[in-house]
Amino acid sequence: MILTVTLNTALDITYRVRSLRPHASHRVSEVLERPGGKGVNVARVLAALGHPVTVTGFAGGATGQVVRDRLTRTPGVLDALVPVAGATRRTVAVVDELTGDTTQLNEPGPVVAPDEWAAFQRTYEDLLAAATAVALCGSLPPGVPVGAYAGLVRSARAAGVPVLLDTGGEPLRRGVAARPDLVKPNTDELAELTGSHDPLRATQDARRRGARAVVASLGAQGLLAVTPEGRWRAAPPARVPGNPTGAGDSVVAGLLSAEAEGLPWPDRLARAVALSAATVQAPAAGEFDPAVYERLLGRITVTDGTAAA
Amino acid sequence: MILTVTLNTALDITYRVRSLRPHASHRVSEVLERPGGKGVNVARVLAALGHPVTVTGFAGGATGQVVRDRLTRTPGVLDALVPVAGATRRTVAVVDELTGDTTQLNEPGPVVAPDEWAAFQRTYEDLLAAATAVALCGSLPPGVPVGAYAGLVRSARAAGVPVLLDTGGEPLRRGVAARPDLVKPNTDELAELTGSHDPLRATQDARRRGARAVVASLGAQGLLAVTPEGRWRAAPPARVPGNPTGAGDSVVAGLLSAEAEGLPWPDRLARAVALSAATVQAPAAGEFDPAVYERLLGRITVTDGTAAA
Question: Domains along chain A?
Answer without folding.
Answer: 2-7+37-89+110-308 (3.40.1190.20)
